[in-house]
Amino acid sequence: MEGLKRITDLHPSFMAMQYPILFPYGEDGFRLGIKYNEHSRRKVACRKNVTMREFYAYRIQNRISEGKTLIKGGKLFQQYLVDAFSCVEEERLDYIRRNQADLRSEIYKGIRDAVVAGDVDGNVIGKKIILPSSFTAGPRYMIQNYQDAISICRHCGHPDLFITFTCNTQWREIQNALLFIPGQRPEDRPDIVSRVFKIKVDALMADIKNGTYFGMPAAGMFAKNILKETYLYTIEFQKRGLPHVHILVWLQGKHRSVTPADIDLFISAEIPDKNTYTEEYQAVSKFMMHGPCDQQILEHRVWQKVIAQNIFRKNLSRTQ
Question: Where in this chain does the record put each Helitron helicase-like domain (predicted)?
Fold first, then answer.
């Protein structure tokens, strides 16, 4: 009789054994060698098999002909997504580890420099794995993006606009997608929230590139003498899970804002008039203002503050 056996994340039953509630029938998960559909419209013909990322992206979609146990999992579904991403990340790291020669890692400073310096003890040196700049969030990835940003600043000067665009779970696209499964909330479907947010970010960047709102962005000379619009953006996630994007834009000379009046055309810290700008007022009051609190909540917060002050005074008197 065999004992317990450890399986890898490439085993077809890996996720089914980890989440028996989501997969009550032990459905197979990802495995190596899954072929693409013959009727697939993929244009890339160099790869014949489905990748792990593509498999999980396919698996979490809502389909009428399939069961919805997985996407109805709530917080368990969120944990499943985290584990799936961890598996994808581990597969990428394993590929880099096994293909160091193809990545030409010998050109980086590493073991050869240590040997030249006289550090020949293997216990001290160890084996260094080089993460290329193509690995997202790696050190070389961050340094390369930083150097690109600094190069743009050196060529075009300081950025003219710093824009923050935040996801809103009340967007019509998100609310309509949640209607397919009654009772679901935005936090139950982070995949829908992220997809809608990315679509809107792409639409916003297209408007910025076309000069719809702020004028045409500046053009910089890059590799192979190609002129490109100069802008940078990074997407971050808040602690509660909602994504937001920070955007830097360099505008052309005639569109650069140099006076307070020009800046006031883009930035407003005033509440729109309720009668004149009804739609704008509703948007600002609903999404950009905190409160107002009703009387019961206000009294509860005041009572909590009084209790906290009394506890602080008692502790202070004891220490004295």
Answer: 55-249
